[in-house]
Amino acid sequence: MFKKVLVALDFSGPAMELFSSIPDLKKLGLEELLLVHTVRVELRVQDGISPLQLKFLEKVKEKKAQLEKEGFHVEIEVPVGAPVEEIKRLAEQRDVDLVLIGSVGESSRVRELFLGSTVADMIRISPVPVLVEKYIAIGDKARRLPIFTDKLATVLMPTDFSPSAEHVYERILEFSDKMEKVVLLTVIDKGDTVEALKEAEDEAERRLLEWKRKFTEKGINTLHLVLKGPASQQIAFAAEQEGATLIAMARRGRGLLAGLMIGSTADQVIRKTNRPVLLFGKKD
Q1: Cβ contacts of 58-67, under 8 Å, gap ≥ 24
Q2: Is it the case that residue 110 has pLDDT exceeding 60?
Q3: pLDDT of residue 16
Q4: Model confidence over 226-245: pLDDT tens digits?
Q5: What is the pLDDT of residues 13-39, one digit of tens each?
Q6: How far apart are alpha carbons 138 and 135 in whole angstroms?
Q7: Is the pLDDT of residue 48 over 90?
Q8: String of DSSP letters for the chain
């Protein structure tokens, strides 16, 4: 599914934690890695990159050698420019299948892995799916929640039944053999009347049962939920309650049920959850 992955690295401590995602990605088809560390123009020193960045790149090179011993093909790119634009350019140029990037929850005391709006901008403009790894603070260290442990993955899939959400559904079906449980979720946060709200709930129930059938036919334990309230809040809540190890959703959507994945919902989910979030565009 994801044979070639671009790993976006800054030179913070938690950046190296992204490499702990490799075992998970290997189960999803990983063979090649493109490690990208962008040197921001405003941070570039006169004679090149800073000693701190050079030290970080030495660690990256050590990791490259280790991964190559494990059988992966690994390359390193160190472009100069705006991180989002350089990551996008290399993702297109190198024909990667996935961008791996890191973020921390808003309640974490660990400093943000990517400063400013890099993560938010990346999920909007990436030409390929984006896996946003989340970190939680354990003392002075950052820790990620693995997608696969001793069990197969538990995937939460929010949907508004838009074409984008349908695309996510088809992509997730591609690795159904790697899943132990699927939770299909629709959030309804608006309704002009009680009757309209009930009608939306009934329609959501009907559509979710249609989606559920394909997963149950593959022998996967599948649950479907229709919740009310703010979409991002309910998605994060359901992920926690159901023990999801991955949230898979569209970057944007516009479906029959108002409010889900419109505007900044994907951004808000990333901020609120400590679960990894896999985001797809319409066609990627």
Answers
A1: 59/16, 60/9, 60/35, 63/16, 63/19, 63/35, 64/35, 67/19, 67/22, 67/33
A2: no
A3: 81
A4: 998 888 899 999 999 999 99
A5: 567 888 989 999 999 999 999 999 988
A6: 9
A7: no
A8: ---EEEEEE-SSGGGGGGGGGHHHHHHTT--EEEEEE-B-GGG-BTTBS-HHHHHHHHHHHHHHHHHHHTT-EEEEE--BS-HHHHHHHHHHHTT-SEEEEEEE-TT-SSPPSS-TTHHHHHHHH-SS-EEEEEEEEETTEEEEPPS-SSS-EEEEEE----HHHHHHHHHHHTTGGGEEEEEEEEEE---SSHHHHHHHHHHHHHHHHHHHHHHHHTT-EEEEEEEES-HHHHHHHHHHHTT-SEEEEESS---SSTTTT-TTHHHHHHHH--S-EEEE-S--
Query: pTM for the whole thing?
Result: 0.87
Return the structure tokens found at 87. 């990551």
Kindly indicate the confidence band of residue 56, based on its pLDDT and cuts at 50, 70 and 90: confident
Q: Which of 125, 152, 133, 97 is nearest to 252 (CA)?
A: 125
pLDDT band at 147 (very low <50, low <70, confident <90, very high): confident
Question: What structural domains and CATH numbers belong to the chain?
Answer: 4-144 (3.40.50.620), 153-280 (3.40.50.620)
Query: Which residues in 171-199 are b (16+ Cβ under 10 Å) and which e?
Result: ebeebbebbebbbbbbbbbebeeeeeeee
Mean confidence (pLDDT) of the chain: 83
Structure-token match 């129930």, residue found: 205
